[in-house]
Amino acid sequence: MALESLQRHDGLFGLTEAAKILEMQPKQFIQFLQQKGWVYRRAAGGNLLPYQDKIQKQLMDCPTITLQTASGIEKVIPCAKITTKGIGVLSEEIKKQSMH
Predict the structure, then answer these.
(1) CA-based, 20 to 30 A from 75: which of 28, 64, 94, 99?
(2) What is the 3-state secondary structure (H, E, C) of 40-92?
(3) pLDDT of 51 higher than 90
(4) Residues of the domain holding 13
(5) Per residue in 38-49, is it b (16+ CB within 10 Å) or e — as a string?
(6) Position 8 confidence tier, pLDDT thresholds 50, 70, 90
(7) Is residue 95 part of a domain?
(8) Helix (H, G, I), strand (E, B), or coil: what is residue 21?
(9) Number of domains the chain is built from
(10) Residue 63 domain-assigned?
(11) Is residue 1 a part of any domain in this protein?
């Protein structure tokens, strides 16, 4: 897929969507992001979060979503997203890795 054609109103892509764009399996893509220092988990089984340097470089963002539990309690959950710029950088990193 041509990266120039990637357009979204918010410019953000979920990790599974980004994996598909970059033609990788989602599980493999998430492992790649963890190995390359793009995302981490605060606790085992917790949500993936972007490292601050990736947010500052505008490669990733971490918007929150608010859910309401069955008991009526609101939960705010961070959600790691990759920007269009981040997709471009990752595409280059994946190409470099596949050459070695």
Answers:
(1) 28
(2) EECCCCCCEEECHHHHHCCCEECCEEEEECCCCCEEEEECCEEEHHHHHHHHH
(3) yes
(4) 6-99
(5) bbeeeeeeeebb
(6) low
(7) yes
(8) helix
(9) 1
(10) yes
(11) no
